[in-house]
Amino acid sequence: MNEEQGTYTIRIKGHLSEQWATRFEGMTMTFTEEGETHLTGTLADQSALHGLLRTVRDSGLELLAVNRVDGE
């Protein structure tokens, strides 16, 4: 994996419908019993992460957490 790449889990409040999958292409959507959607996937660099977070913000979704899950 490229040093800039990272695998992230982004927690969003609520269960998103499958139509959101195209906005978060390349990310796996998982729904929790607690009523959250987790987006998990590898992003090319920090710019890609910020772009994804901008999409969350611009869509009016409630961001709960962002965690890098592949180490640092």
Task: List the topology elements.
Elements: E1 6-13, E2 28-31, E3 36-43, H1 46-58, E4 63-68
Antiparallel strand pairs: 1-3, 1-4, 2-3
Write up this protein.
This protein has 72 residues and is an alpha+beta fold. It has one domain (6-68): Alpha-Beta Plaits. The chain has 1 helix and 4 strands. Strands 2-3-1-4 form a 4-stranded antiparallel sheet, with helices on one face.
Which tags fit this structure?
globular; 18% helix; alpha+beta; 1 helix; four-stranded antiparallel beta sheet
Count up the domains. 1
**Structure summary, number of beta strands:** 4
Number of helices: 1
Structural class: alpha+beta
What does the average pLDDT come to? 92
Strand content: 35-45%
The ordered H/E elements are EEEHE
Main sheet attributes: strand count, strand direction, barrel closure: 4 strands, antiparallel
Helix content: 10-25%
Widest β-sheet, arrangement of strands: 2-3-1-4
Radius of gyration: 12 Å
The first-level CATH class name: Alpha Beta
* Unreliable stretches: none
Q: So what's the overall shape?
A: globular
Q: In the CATH classification, which architecture applies?
A: 2-Layer Sandwich
Q: Give the termini distance in whole angstroms.
A: 13 Å
Q: Kindly report the CATH topology.
A: Alpha-Beta Plaits
Give the gist of this structure.
This protein is an alpha+beta fold. It has one helix at 46-58, and strands at 6-13, 28-31, 36-43, 63-68. It has a single domain (6-68), classed as Alpha-Beta Plaits.
